[in-house]
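@channel sequence for tomorrow's demo:
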Amino acid sequence: MNRITLAAAVFLASPPAFAQVITIPPTMEDFRSPRPPHGHGVSPALAIEAAQAALAACDAQGAKVTALMVDSEDIPIALISADGGVLTERLAASKARIAVKTGMSSAQAAERAKIDPAFLAQLMADPYMSTPFSGALPVTMGGASAGAFAVGGGSVAGQDEACAKAGLAKIQDRLR
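structure tokens (generated this afternoon):
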């Protein structure tokens, strides 16, 4: 059974030593202040549609994965986990953050990290990122960053990125 989680309720384990929400929980002062807007991103309906298409593409290959769409501020829009495991959720979140923060696919970041130790150190310094692996793609709308779409959990090299591409292809013509 797939688990669908929308941004308002996304909980992901982050640094391996302890569980943590993907963003800092609000304080009482936050509740008294005007609510800040989300970053630029796709609609929840399109995010869910892309995630479902990515999961279907991976399922056809026998892979149970997690798909995650985040906005331009790396805030989750939708997360669907077909494997029921937190590990693939953490992996997808790390990949998505890398794509948002670098503006490149996580596969491109992985290639750059192999030859640029300073770049790898920069990624490793952020507790929400780690060694980059392929599977996340930047998302643009109207020429501006709209976040990233990531898949985590495939067992074959390149599988996560192929499934992410399939998910984005499903909604590409409606990204405005």
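heads up for whoever presents: Strands lie at 3-6, 11-13, 19-21, 66-70, 76-81, 136-141, 144-152.
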